[in-house]
Design goal:
Distance between the termini: 17 Å
Order of helices and strands: EHEEEEHEEEE
Largest sheet: 4 strands, mixed
Shape: globular
Strand order of the largest sheet: 3-2-5-4
Structural class: alpha/beta
Strand content: 35-45%
Radius of gyration: 14 Å
Number of helices: 2
Length: 107
């Protein structure tokens, strides 16, 4: 199943990598944080780690570390604009509960 991007998210990542002038793709995972237990981490990457799992969606490489995969398997990343705000939205089928501030979740 892996991790996927919407067309809008892929376009945003592609544009950002083009502006940077380099980049392999994005690294997506989780870290322990927040009141619900876990928070997403997302960064642009230039190099692959040996243990990385690589998924590709709309031509963009998504690198996930094996420890994060059980928590993010099946997640679709979208890039949305809501009023003056814009950012990534995580559509994760594994989430059982999220904190009120929207910064963390548990599975």
């Amino acid at each position: 199943m892996g991790v996927t991007l919407t067309e809008n998210a892929a376009r945003h990542v592609e544009n950002f990598i083009a502006k940077r002038g380099k980049g392999l793709g994005i690294r997506f995972g989780v870290k322990t944080s927040g009141c619900s237990g876990m928070a997403y981490k997302l960064e642009f990457v230039d190099d692959k780690h040996d243990e990385d799992l690589i998924f590709e969606s709309h031509g963009i490489k998504i690198l996930v570390d094996p420890k994060s995969l059980p928590y993010v398997e099946g997640t679709e990343l979208d890039f949305v604009r809501e009023g003056l705000n814009e950012g990534f939205k995580f559509n994760n089928p594994n989430v059982k509960d999220a904190c009120g501030c929207g910064e963390s979740f548990n599975v």
